[in-house]
Design a protein that fits this description.
Enzyme class (chains A, B, C, D): transferase
CATH architecture of the largest domain in chain A: 2-Layer Sandwich
Radius of gyration of chain A: 20 Å
CATH superfamily of the largest domain in chain A: ATPase, nucleotide binding domain
Number of helices of chain A: 10
Number of domains of chain A: 2
Keywords (chains A, B, C, D): ATP-binding, Kinase, Nucleotide-binding, Transferase
Strand order of the largest sheet of chain A: 3-2-1-4-8
Structural class of chain A: alpha/beta
CATH topology of the largest domain in chain A: Nucleotidyltransferase, domain 5
Helix content of chain A: 25-40%
Distance between the termini of chain A: 17 Å
Oligomer: homotetramer
InterPro entries (chains A, B, C, D): ATPase_NBD, ROK, ROK_cs, ROK_glcA
CATH class of the largest domain in chain A: Alpha Beta
Organism (chains A, B, C, D): Actinospica durhamensis
Number of strands of chain A: 13
Largest interface: A-B, 50 and 50 residues
Protein name (chains A, B, C, D): Glucokinase
């Protein structure tokens, strides 16, 4: 039975796991991400070597935030590390003496969910990873869309609003500015500031001030029926629904998977997003539409997807 | 040497050709499209049988406007014919006794250009077909993107403007409303009505009135430097440039091909579109961008692409 | 009883009338507008002299398309004449030997309607004149808003859509591009081209082709229930409703008057516009909203308003 | 010499002053706003009675946030107090035994600036008060625009972006969401989070975190050349410039005054706003445009304007 290691390289922690062909994690470890970007490779290697001790592993897959080259060897650019053209594949391969592939973190999560999670069995999948920003992963006819330069499926960065909000990427009106967890938090903070009485439950979860509202509070409060939290989800859902309509015109997938931290709200987000999608999809009523489901693997999607892509190399 | 027949089924004419493995058309015919949709299959068969007389052909590829099923057998919906769930593959196969595949017309044109025309040699291609409407074709890692339901790459129908113009598809703000030949004509007619003196050259090509301006006049006049025609192209080019930026975020191709009647203006359209693309592309300056070229096969792209897809089945 | 003459200077005809203090037209004449802008003043004087023959008149008011100076003496700029800084007041005064005031045509129509037509009795009125373009007139506390430079109330030229349609004024996204008769015609032509069967009634009023649809056909067809014509009005009404919401935030009038050729459709336009206005008005439910009515004076509004402004000088 | 008292009723303090006919404040007091809305009237009266002790005053003007009735007697609705249909005029008149008028706070500030501050001498003035939200005041032909229901000049609440950001007023895309101090802070916090190195100066003014950035820090940092703070001002200035273009089309003022806390940045805001205004104004080049200046009275504008409106009753 062929085993591989998947590594999810985050800004605060590095999580690694040994994964089998069924997408099960047999062993796992989590280490703190070093402040010094120069030390990250050593910590990745340490994580890989820790989990492989009791297993025969064949390869390593790394999921990294940022732009990854088309040959899956180099991190071209990363926002949360000081890496520029970092030859991560070879650096890790030298340390662990195994074949290594590098892939974008949203791509590995999408691959994990598509193969072993919410997309199980469908060959055409689009995953929206809704966290601080909005990431994407696209599977077409069973193959991961990487793009000519390795930088495809950056679904948070097509323009949804001319003259729209300034984005961190330097352009205006990107989807990420409207459909991310940051957008949700902005909406809910403003709602609570306007109407603290209505947001009483929500405010009670933090320090009592709108500024003290954290993303996790919003999901909790929405589950308890807090109207301000629910309105925030409804606003974001409209943009997610529109994005799914746009991706249907372009990619025509069989299933949309909503992942990332915001998607932990489950149907609180998915139900209004699906409803709006059905309203604004192209040629509505004259064509079949994709299923809309919530991710099922949680934070493990990255480890599982990275490991499987290493096997699939 | 394996030969196949490609057929381009248009609203006014049906064009067929025998095509070799290098994408050369060895023999061709063009018949009028019957008014009665029920007679179209017979005319297609007649065209195929006419061109195959002196050639050994192995298969037939049909390019049809509208939604084509994922198994390439059925036209689900066509705007310019009364076809609904038309089993076109089997109907033609019965008449010509050859294997048949059906594909969307913008897809076959994109495939033809990608394999034998402007995209020669690149595995990741996006073609925008800018005619009366805006069609699209997407090639990823050398394979045509068809979509889960066979209806992908409808690039004219993602939303570029919230609350935007009503589209024929029933939604508002679709790309097609801003970047098509119809949009160009609308712009130029309005410009000429406002300032007939400035549009003197353009108006002289028709009956002298703004309403008498045809699409072909606009390209001709732009080549002669007519300022109103050039302004129209510049407006449309901004939307094409934005669409290429959006497709870069999502699909990250190596080349964009601009095709369709409007693209016959060549660099008059491509140059400002390319320039705007470079300005609004995501993460500009931190990532490579696609080439922007004009289609080279002209109206033959459909025949050549359809024939090649039949071979590739 | 003080009488004045009002003159409506149009692109094709010059209409003059003797008007009493109750806004009644006692005598009228209509002359063709000379092709040569240099002859227009003489024709205006001829019209004035014709109607005054049997009446004692005290002053003359002129309504002219274009920008009129704050002192109501000069036409600064007109799109449909070759006038630039035309000293129209003095030119006409020299010819008719009466005091003369010049005012913008949409302003005089608004004044006529506000004083003697649909706005009778209300001191705060906004009129939208929906013809080929969109003009406006604003009355605040019983006084006509002229603006510091004489060019206020150009309500068709505030921006309603960032990155929107190119306007004749040189900017993008002006209200006029979405809420004018031209916009209505564009919508309805496109609807009829897409679905001629559905637009059968409408098409039967012209030459049978979408291009042959005239503005007057659309109103006629809508009255007979033609679905394509009604959809066109519904689209335009959404923009009119939004414009009224915007003007409510800024000007807070007591009544909106819908005038111009498109408003001849009456409640076919006004009803959906009013409904949308109630939905999108600021602070809906927490503040009173303006009435929405259709103009009642028809093309006479200009003559009546111009005459009354001359009296009011 | 006739003296009046002006009162600026804020959420945290109530400021009153005795003002002469030249707009000079001769005496002043500032009291804390009571938490209990029911106590506010008593505190206003106390402030009035305190400042009038050594002066013969004839009337009192009150500037209050919220909707004020057309007869200037009643606060219909206030967001920062629990007042609903509060008969503030009569309540205060009973306590101070002087004639009282009530006016919206942005209106009194605009009146103060127009009469005695930056608009000195111009009869047609539009003031944008850019604080937490965006307020407005409009003077036409020397008279304050109040509106038919007393709720005009709410310039922060016309729609600038279809499908735009949710506003506290319940609608989407209001100017306030893009051009307010809150929008500036949101932009700058995001910029600092993305690029802390670039925002070093700005971050050093607070607790070192993006969330710790206050509005006052942004102006300070911009004055020292902090690039992230300057980019924030530049973004907001584009919307202010567009709003001035829109108000030019509608109101055609002779001068725009930029007031409120954000305008304390002076030309850092005004210069790019003016530049963008010149670019996007209607019929640019064919009409004169308004001056763009920064308010000069600071927080005193409210007291001075309220006092003067009381005199002018």
């Amino acid at each position: 039975m062929a085993l591989t290691v998947g590594v999810d390289i985050g800004g605060t922690k590095i999580a690694a796991g040994v994964v089998d062909e069924e997408g099960r994690i047999l062993e796992r470890v989590k280490l703190a991400t070093p402040k010094d970007s120069g030390q990250v490779a050593a910590t990745i290697a340490e994580a890989v070597n820790t989990v492989r001790q009791n297993h025969e592993v064949e390869a390593v897959g790394l999921g990294a935030a940022g732009f990854v080259s088309a040959d899956r060897a180099t991190v071209l650019f990363a926002a949360n590390m000081s890496w520029r053209n970092e030859p991560l594949r070879d650096r890790i391969a030298d340390l662990v003496h195994l074949p290594v592939v590098v892939e974008n973190d949203a791509n590995v999560a999408a691959w994990g969910e598509a193969r072993f999670g919410a997309g199980n069995g469908v060959d055409n999948v689009v995953m929206l990873t809704i966290g601080t920003g909005v990431g994407g992963g696209v599977i077409i006819d069973g193959r991961l869309l990487r793009g000519h330069f390795g930088i495809g499926a950056e679904l948070g960065h097509y323009r949804v609003q001319p003259g729209g909000l300034l984005c961190g990427c330097g352009q205006h009106g990107c989807l990420e500015q409207y459909a991310s967890g940051s957008a949700l938090t902005r909406l809910v903070k403003a709602g609570a500031a306007r109407n603290p009485e209505k947001a009483k439950l929500l405010l009670s979860l933090g320090d009592g001030t709108p500024e003290g509202i954290a993303g996790s509070h919003i999901t909790l409060a929405a589950r308890e029926g807090d109207p301000v939290a629910l309105e925030g989800f409804a606003e974001v859902a409209v943009w997610i629904g529109q994005a799914m309509a746009d991706m249907t015109a372009i990619l025509d997938p069989g299933v949309f998977i909503l992942g990332g931290g915001v998607s932990e709200a489950g149907e609180i987000l998915a139900a209004p997003a699906r409803e709006h999608y059905h309203t604004v999809a192209p040629a509505t009523g004259q064509r079949p539409l994709a299923e809309v489901v919530t991710a099922t693997l949680g934070p493990d999607a990255g480890i599982i997807g990275a490991a499987d892509l290493a096997r699939d190399r």
